[in-house]
Amino acid sequence: MIALKIANSSHFSPKRTFECGQCFRWQEEEDGSYTGVVEGHVANISLDGSTINIDSNNLDLQFWEDYLDLKRDYAKIEKNLSKDSIMKKAISKGTGIRLLKQPLWECLLSFIISQNNNIPRIKKIVQALCVNYGNEIKFRNKTYYSFPTPEQLHNANLDPIKAGFREKYILDAVNKVINNDIDLNSIWEQNSDEAEKYLMQIKGVGNKVADCVLLFAYQKFDVFPKDVWIKRIVKDLYNIEEKEIALFASNKFKDYCGFAQQYLFFQARD
DNA sequence: AGCCAGGACAAGT
DNA sequence: ACTTGTCATGGC
User: Fold this and answer.
1) Could you tell me the distance in Å between the CA of residue A208 and the C1' of nucleotide B11?
2) What's the DSSP call for residue A256?
3) Which nucleotides of B are covered by protein (CB under 7 A)?
4) Of the listed A101, A176, A208, A226, which one is catalytic?
5) What is the pTM of this model?
6) CA distance A95 to A24
7) In sequence order, what DSSP letters do the residues of A170-220 get, joined into one string?
8) Which position among A75, A196, A211, A266 has the lowest Cβ density within 10 Å, counted as fewest Cβ atoms?
């Protein structure tokens, strides 16, 4: 294992990035670093001054830069959004969050599982999926598990993961992807409105879950997922009612809606 | 013990 | 088109 050093580490907080609720598989180690699995690759990531250290069984720098969204200029994004004083305050509390470019299938299932659920239990169910149906991966003398493919979940008995009423939703997503009723790669070429409707063909995928997938996997930053936390904080900070949120967000944050949403979500949960 | 959770869906107005 | 009850499970 060789540690990779990346120079441009400004605006990257591992803690905020991995614990802001966009992903569910990164775990903090005793030394403050984070270990996670992405598409079968395990990585331990830590911040040392202005250097990001990545120890992994995949030493392709490009892969991790892509996943961590390291090539994007977050200083520019934060500056743009800070024109709004309320957002400026939210950013000051959440600076360092980066929006990960997550694997499509994992992101879809994770947010199907997220509905009417709390983050600790979402993590538990996702982990159970991986342990029961994914592949074993050895890293640093410990065992990790990849996120199971649609094939690995096909016709599986999902009772052990205790997903409750979401189990039938997971299986519907599995079937639609296996049967090619849903082609996740085709979504790259769709705009956000088309893509949202396309994903909502899957049972258990409504507008909120679809928006999260579009934001956290497809990097469609013009969406503004509205969950219970967002509804509360937008009402509190901007006095905007739920029904008006979509229009409000697109007018105020434009192409930066997704980033704005994360800063607000982070503040709301703080 | 009881309320709530990064909601969606069906049934009812 | 808007409102309401229901859905499994477990965290707090």
Assistant:
1) 22
2) G
3) 4-9
4) A208
5) 0.97
6) 20
7) HHHHHHHHHTTSS-GGGGGGS-HHHHHHHHTTSTT--HHHHHHHHHHTS--
8) A75
In the prediction, which pLDDT does A1 show? 57
Cα–Cα dist A145/A41, whole Å: 9
Per the CB < 8 A criterion, the answer to whether A200 and A210 are in contact is yes
> CA A263, CA A8: separation in Å to the nearest integer?
21
Give me the phi and psi of A19, to 5 degrees please: -115, 10
pLDDT for A9: 65
pLDDT digits (tens, 9 = 90+) for A150-171: 999 999 999 999 999 999 999 9
Nearby residues of A232 by Cβ (< 8 Å), 6 or more positions away: A268
Nucleotide closest in space to A112 (CA vs C1'): B7
Tokens of A203: 């049972």
Retrieve residue A153's tokens: 């979940």
Label residues A204-222 b or e (16+ Cβ within 10 Å = b).
bbeebbbbbbbbbbbebbb
Instruction: Determine contact, residues A137/A144, Cβ cutoff 8 Å.
Output: yes
Residue pLDDT, tens place only, A50-106: 889 999 999 999 999 999 999 999 999 999 999 999 999 999 999 999 999 999 999
